[in-house]
């Protein structure tokens, strides 16, 4: 069958010329090599199902990709493929690569074919933009779009987000993708997959939009790639990204001798935050979004303009919640290894596609970490700069649960680490080292434990050309790209993520609500963990074993469980939180059924033990309270209580409280000294109420004391709901 060619003609023997008669200089970079092959002609089904015919004309980048699809991917020559067709195509490439792989090649066993099926399923859903919902196929235009983004998008995250925009736009404008392709192909006069600025106006006009006044040339060379062009056509607006730098020494660092700072001379001891979308984002033991005039470090010493971004605030917040939070949370702050400047660098890389903050800011901890001055000050700096996750002292005027309180991204319903603790050989998961990387679908083939961490050996399928721009050059040499089986060892478990249906081809955390409604993940969480549980205080700090009677001049706080003096010869202490557990309580709690009181997940046996022991129930409830109260207000509102409810239900595999039941319990337990406003009610409506002295109007919230009772009630209800289910199963 004749094959589809590109949408325009160009004299292959002449230099690229502008339709306006202006010669175009060639780009120093190229997404694809210039393709000036012999002409072809085509007749095939377009994505709307109608036959289309093109004259015999030279092929450009998009035309060559169409030809590759029709000659190699689409065996039936219909211009579309099903998921089964796509699997057969990838399997044939994997088998061919296996035959040529030599002595170390892997045979495609049943386990590998199961893994390949999952790889193809996710890849197919990534390509599918919903243009062919009637036959559940992907068309040639969708495949070409995918290939062009693989070659031009600055990261996998950027590719995922632009496809999300396109999926929203296509139902209202089904011809949008074809129009983008036509406009791009018409304006790509050099055949490199890049648009020279002389042709931007033509390209945007052909696509049916006005040329934006602030077209972003991400590389600064006067060329626009397919990713940037598509972003602008979809209406993405540019926003300024700035780095706010605060000198914590207030000028004193300039006078410190270089010998005391590892041989480096510093202009300041820098704290930094990223300014974008009218807010400032920074890390201080928690991820915070603050007004620019409401930062606890005063006015910035410098504000550097780093560039322009096509991202949106919604994309940034999603990135913070689902990606950055994994490494930047209330327990991870360290002034030398994971501080505010490392966080700023992550955000800048996301917003500006790989750009980094100035070396003076980013490398300062590395340069100074070996000095005795920094080693001495490190604990104090961690307590000060990493304490905002506990106190949120950014806004002196902000009241608890006030909208003006800086927004903190943290969650009690994140069960990703608990899921990792229960991974076993044979599990299929996602592997991703950095947030910008494409996650690979992998199978765990071995797990190894060292003294400090667990690592995995994984196996996965990988194309021989990891960047898809290799396809045209392979075609020119008569070759095809292939898939190979790859093994990788010593993979840290924190690089593994659950294979979520809703992850949109990305890697995301495992939320309690999803674990509750999925037997697949719920089953993993019910496994016995391989790792032993570390005794910890309610804030998660390690409890240190202390032996011997305390000195006569030392005041030992009472046991945090039983309340009695902890003056025994063996006790466990957290100096940071002033928490002490006596030896008797520690032994009793460690021997509880269900893994002991320090288990990372509750099960019915442990829940019953807690309900029978008021001291340990209070201890465990405080741990949930502090984790849910991530912005340190001292209060749990209804959304936070709902997340606690979902977390407990997911852990116990029980039915969560309904919204009405949750609201009823919160009304019953709300502190009596507060007059509770119903959700959505205005304070003015109750202005005629005479409040007793010491009372105040607040939204429906629980303090720590009332939350402890809520925690016990939620456990009791969950266990009561489990009993009928167990009898029904028997």
Automatic annotation (TrEMBL):
Polar residues biased stretches: 25-44
Record-linked InterPro entries: EF-hand-dom_pair, PPPDE_dom, PPPDE_sf
Spans annotated as Disordered: 1-57
Occurrences of domain PPPDE (ranges): 239-382
PROSITE patterns tied to this protein: PPPDE (PS51858)
Single biological process term from Gene Ontology: protein modification by small protein removal
A molecular function (GO) term: peptidase activity
Key words of the record: Hydrolase, Protease
Family per record: Belongs to the DeSI family.
The protein's name in its UniProt record: PPPDE domain-containing protein
Organism listed in the record: Alexandrium andersonii
């Amino acid at each position: 069958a004749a094959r589809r060619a590109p949408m325009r003609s160009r004299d292959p023997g002449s230099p690229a010329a502008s339709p306006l008669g202006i010669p175009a200089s060639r780009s120093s970079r190229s997404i694809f090599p210039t393709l000036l092959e012999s002409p072809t002609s085509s007749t095939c089904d377009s994505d709307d199902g109608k036959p289309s015919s093109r004259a015999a004309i030279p092929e450009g980048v998009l035309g060559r990709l169409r030809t590759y699809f029709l000659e190699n991917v689409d065996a039936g020559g219909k211009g579309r493929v099903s998921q089964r067709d796509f699997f057969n195509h990838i399997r044939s490439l994997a088998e061919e690569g296996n035959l040529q792989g030599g002595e170390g090649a892997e045979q495609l066993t049943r386990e590998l074919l199961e893994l390949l099926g999952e790889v193809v399923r996710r890849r197919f859903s990534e390509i599918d933009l919903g243009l062919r919902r009637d036959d559940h196929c992907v068309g040639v235009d969708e495949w070409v779009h995918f290939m062009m983004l693989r070659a031009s998008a600055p990261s996998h995250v950027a590719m995922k987000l632009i496809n999300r925009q396109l999926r929203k736009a296509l139902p209202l404008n089904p011809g949008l993708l074809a129009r983008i392709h036509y406009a791009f192909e018409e304006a790509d006069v050099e055949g490199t997959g890049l648009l020279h600025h002389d042709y931007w106006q033509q390209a945007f006009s052909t696509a049916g939009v006005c040329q934006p006044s602030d077209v972003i040339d991400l590389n600064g060379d006067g060329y626009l790639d397919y990713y940037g062009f598509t972003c602008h056509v979809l209406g993405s607006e540019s926003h300024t990204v700035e780095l706010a730098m605060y000198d914590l020494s207030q000028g004193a660092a300039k006078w410190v001798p270089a010998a005391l700072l590892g041989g480096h001379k510093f202009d300041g001891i820098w704290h930094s935050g990223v300014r974008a979308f009218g807010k400032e984002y920074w890390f201080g033991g928690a991820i915070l979004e603050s007004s620019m005039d409401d930062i606890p470090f005063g006015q910035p010493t410098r504000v550097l303009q780093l560039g322009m971004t096509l991202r949106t605030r919604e994309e940034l917040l999603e990135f913070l919640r689902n990606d950055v939070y994994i490494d930047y949370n209330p327990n991870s702050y360290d002034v030398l290894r994971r501080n505010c400047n490392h966080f700023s660098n992550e955000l800048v890389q996301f917003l500006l596609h790989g750009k980094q903050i100035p070396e003076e800011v980013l490398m300062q901890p590395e340069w100074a970490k070996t000095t005795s001055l920094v080693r001495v000050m490190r604990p104090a700096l961690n307590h000060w700069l990493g304490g905002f996750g506990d106190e949120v002292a950014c806004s002196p005027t902000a009241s608890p649960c006030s909208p003006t309180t800086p927004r903190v991204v943290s969650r009690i319903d994140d069960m990703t680490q608990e899921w990792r603790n229960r991974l076993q050989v044979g599990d299929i998961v996602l592997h991703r080292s950095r947030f910008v990387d494409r996650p690979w679908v992998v199978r765990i083939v071995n797990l190894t434990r060292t003294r400090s961490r667990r690592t995995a050996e994984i196996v996965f399928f990988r194309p021989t050309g990891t960047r898809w721009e290799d396809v045209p050059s392979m075609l020119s040499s008569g070759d095809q790209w292939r898939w190979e089986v790859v093994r990788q060892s010593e993979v840290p478990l924190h690089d593994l993520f659950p294979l979520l249906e809703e992850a949109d081809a990305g890697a995301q955390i495992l939320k309690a609500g999803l674990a509750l409604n999925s037997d697949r993940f719920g089953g993993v969480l019910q496994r016995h963990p391989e790792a032993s549980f570390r005794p910890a205080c309610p804030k998660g700090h390690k409890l240190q074993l202390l032996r011997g009677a305390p000195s006569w001049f030392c005041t030992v706080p009472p046991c945090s469980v039983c309340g009695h003096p902890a003056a025994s010869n063996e006790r466990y202490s957290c100096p940071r939180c002033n928490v002490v557990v006596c030896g008797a309580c520690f032994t009793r709690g460690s021997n509880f059924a269900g893994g002991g009181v320090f288990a990372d997940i509750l099960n019915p046996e442990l829940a019953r033990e807690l309900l029978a022991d008021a001291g340990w129930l209070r201890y465990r409830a405080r741990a949930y309270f502090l984790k849910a109260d991530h912005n340190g207000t001292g209060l749990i509102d209804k959304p936070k209580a709902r997340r606690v409810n979902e977390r407990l239900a997911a852990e116990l595999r029980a039915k969560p409280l309904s919204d009405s039941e949750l609201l009823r319990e919160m009304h019953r337990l709300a502190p009596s000294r507060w007059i509770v406003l119903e959700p959505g009610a205005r304070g003015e409506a109750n202005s005629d109420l005479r409040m007793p002295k010491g009372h105040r109007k607040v939204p429906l919230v629980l303090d720590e004391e009332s939350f402890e009772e809520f925690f016990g009630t939620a456990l009791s209800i969950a266990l009561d709901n489990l009993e009928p289910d167990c009898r029904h199963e028997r």
